[in-house]
Amino acid sequence: MIELEGLTKRYGEKLAVNNLTFAVRPGIVTGFLGPNGAGKSTTMRMMLGLDNPTAGDVRIDGKHYAQLKDPLTYIGALLDAKAMHGGRSAFNHLLCLAQSNGIPRARVAEVLDTVGLTPVARKKAKGFSLGMGQRLGIAGALLGDPRILMFDEPVNGLDPEGIHWIRNLMKSLAGQGRTVFVSSHLMSEMALTADHLVVIGQGHLLADTSMSDFIEQNSRSYVRLRSPQQERLLDVLHEAGITVVEAGNGTLEVDGGSPEKLGELAATHQLVLHELSPQQASLEEAFMRLTAETVEYHAHTDEPGMTPPVQEPPLARPGWGESWDRAKDEGAR
Amino acid sequence: MAATQVLRSEWTKIRSVASTVWTLSLAAVLTIALGVLISILSRNEFKNMSVKEQMGFDPTFISFAGMSLGQLAMIVFGVLVVSNEYSTGMIRTSLAAVPQRGTFLFSKIAVATLLAFVVGLATSFIAFFLGQAMLGSYKAQIGDPGVLRAVIGGGLYMTLIAVFSMGVASMLRSPMLSLGILMPFFFLISNILGAVSATKKIGRFLPDQAGSKIMQVVPPVGDDTPYGPWGGLLIMVIWVVVALFFGYLLLKKRDA
């Protein structure tokens, strides 16, 4: 169990992390999601006592990180794959970590085997690919057989087989009752692994909700319509009392509409349809809508003067504000 | 957190990187080889020296002449032992494993200091005996007054140079910055200050000049240094302690 309370980090004028309060619970995978520069890594470094918070507090099973005796046996972390001396062999890298926390030497060979690095155990880490470095970092996190595991962007640089492996690893670790906290900037990745979501943007908490709630609240289903007789189609839909959104390029979107009814309606009025398709907004879009205002580095692919790429959601999103309130209440308790 | 665990871990760290072997063996080889060379040259030159120079001839100190170069390798050793952690990003992994930053830093420095002392002392003895062998009839004996102190002092001097560098590297973190300051400081600035009479009085309170006094057996004629061999070493120790103190203070406060 990791508890953050009012955690804040200020670099000069800039608030990197602003008053974060949430808890990471055991037995599930908690995804820590946010765009690049949202403050994920800074938050994780503060959790490990590497950076000092400007304000607020982090507790690991009720204790400050520095109070943990042999901390690697409580919490294992992968921060970045290259946080190691490249001239040292994989075995010696893990051995020096093990010795500092009183972990038996035999455990080094065990974790090397778990991550599949036994054949290169005596090779220097600088010759490792990004994926192998990532595996070695994960081996370091597993070394002390800790109850809490923390991974910062673990799938970065891994090949599909490696990604599959780490997803299963995280799920099985959580299945053993451990606390698993994993950061990512990819919603699609989180959707596959996380049971719970903590979303931040520019250091602010945007959501603290279960994955299923997030999907329910944020995935929008709609029907896309295209017709050469768009004007008439619009009139017909209006008469039937159906709300339509013009999505540009001659397409219309009906939220929550049923394709059967819409098709029948068009047939009754003898309208030609070029497209009638049910659509599901991806979670990636939901995530982008949620963090749109807080993204620090926008890429501008559009011409100046054109409409911004992220549109206001046509659908009100009841709920995500609720979870923010709920998080605040939990923090107050 | 048991300190013995951290000491063992730091020993694994220091013995498992190539730079340790390279810098320490370079320090030994440079000190010994240059000492031998200068001892040979001194023996051949002795007859041509002035009486004053012959009076102040210090065969023990001559055999340590290579230390002016060998100490640079010791500086690199001291700097790399500490700054490796920062330049590789290992520091975050290390401090997550050992959050007690004082224990972490001083265990690292203790292990590196012990290693530097063993290598420094061996180097000093070898440099002395080989140097004396080259000096022929002008040589000193290990049993002569003050000679054993000077030879052990040579080992202490090399050790303290390395520890001072560790302290500076703990403050500056970057290996390039640390070496960029320490190298010219010991190789140029100290020599320049010592050569100009106006600044000579300041120069002799610098760590290397004060510390090297321990290796002298016969002081130069007209020497007015206000401290003896152990006083000089003490001045050097004070420099080392100050560097370590600020290194620790900064590590304690800083974000890793």
UniProtKB/TrEMBL annotation, chain A:
Keywords associated with the record: ATP-binding, Nucleotide-binding, Transport
GO molecular function (one): ATP hydrolysis activity
Ranges for domain ABC transporter: 2-227
InterPro entries per the UniProt record, alphabetical: AAA+_ATPase, ABC_transporter-like_ATP-bd, P-loop_NTPase
SUPFAM superfamilies: P-loop containing nucleoside triphosphate hydrolases
Transmembrane segments: none
Region (Disordered): 300-333
Name of this chain's protein: ATP-binding cassette domain-containing protein
High-level lineage: Bacteria, Bacillati, Actinomycetota, Actinomycetes, Kitasatosporales
TrEMBL record, chain B:
Keywords: Membrane, Transmembrane, Transmembrane helix
Transmembrane segments: 21-41, 61-83, 104-130, 150-172, 179-198, 230-251
Pfam hit, one: ABC2_membrane_4
Superkingdom in the source lineage: Bacteria
Entry protein name: ABC transporter permease
Classification lineage: Bacteria, Bacillati, Actinomycetota, Actinomycetes, Kitasatosporales
